[in-house]
Design goal:
The protein has 362 residues and is an alpha/beta fold. It has 8 helices and 16 strands. Helix 5 packs parallel to helix 7 and helix 7 (293-303) packs across helix 8 (325-336). The structure holds zinc ion (2 copies).
Length: 362
Amino acid sequence: MPRFLLIGYLLLASSTCTGQPVGVDQRSLGPSGEAPKVDNRYVNPEIAMQHGSLFAFLKARFRSGEWASYDPDQYQVPTAEPELVKPTDTQDEARVTWIGHATVLLQHQGINVLTDPMFGDFASPVDFAGPKRITQPALTLEQLPPIDVVVISHDHYDHLDKPSIAKLGNQPKYFVPLGIKKWLVGQGINPERITELNWWQEVVIEVRGQRLKVTATPAQHFSGRGLFDRNQRLWSSWLLRWDNYSVWFGGDTGYNKVQFKQIGQRFPGIDLGIIPIGAYAPRWFMGTVHVDPAQAVQIHQDIGALHSFGIHWGAFMLSAEPVDEAVALLAAAVAESNLAAQEFGTYAIGETRRYPIVREVD
Ligand code: ZN
Ligand code: ZN
């Protein structure tokens, strides 16, 4: 096994393995549901952090043969040509384009929103090691339309990419969970372009006369970009509400019975859920921080989304499952839950879906 790969995985995995169990009393939410903090580190309110050992993880990764590799001769992640909004298009539909991994372009009412911009080749601190991209993003940063809003779910390398942020620069407004503003300012982003929120906090912005409500919603995950900053920055999911269309972006999350039901109860009428389905194996290591496809379906139902599609697969081999397994397991879980196949599926990388406006959102 090449040594540079080990370095990348060590950095990625190290922050997941030493979580200390904390008592329920310490993990209670703030008065408005804010994320709890213990000893200056954010914690997940619905679970005591229980991680498998790093040694066992690395053994599974490099020794046991349990880890699938990507063989394009066996399976190719499907790709498609994006169909972005043109100035002459009508605005009675929302357009959603999967650029790859957790990077999604939302276009509605003249507002362009980008989630977790990751256009780099390596999901790691260095540009030569760690999990390497197996599929290219559908668009380059140069091919993107002008981006008005960027939402970031957390600071992991596959969601927060330095070169991508540097290229996006000060054009978009950034919405980030607590702690990430300082990091962005360090990359040269103007502090006035950044809004940092705790769970359930919300701001309303206006872009060329159109209103967009941006709400940070909870997720069950963790954070850290190095060996010593574990859980010092918050993680979140995001709700984006246009006047007549709403999208929930799940980012990266494990499942619990509380948070997603709360999101569905507080915000009835979510039109589209963007829900992670990959990086779930082995469950003993990933179980608390990454949902599997069946849990993704549970989230879709908990938040009450009209449609959902699965992200966080097909770009980086972050975990042990074969790259196409998430797609098959999702289809099986959708059928088992008696949902129509089109209610929750996957896109090809680059695919644009058009969603008609079907219900009013206040
Ligand atoms: Zn993550
Ligand atoms: Zn991730």
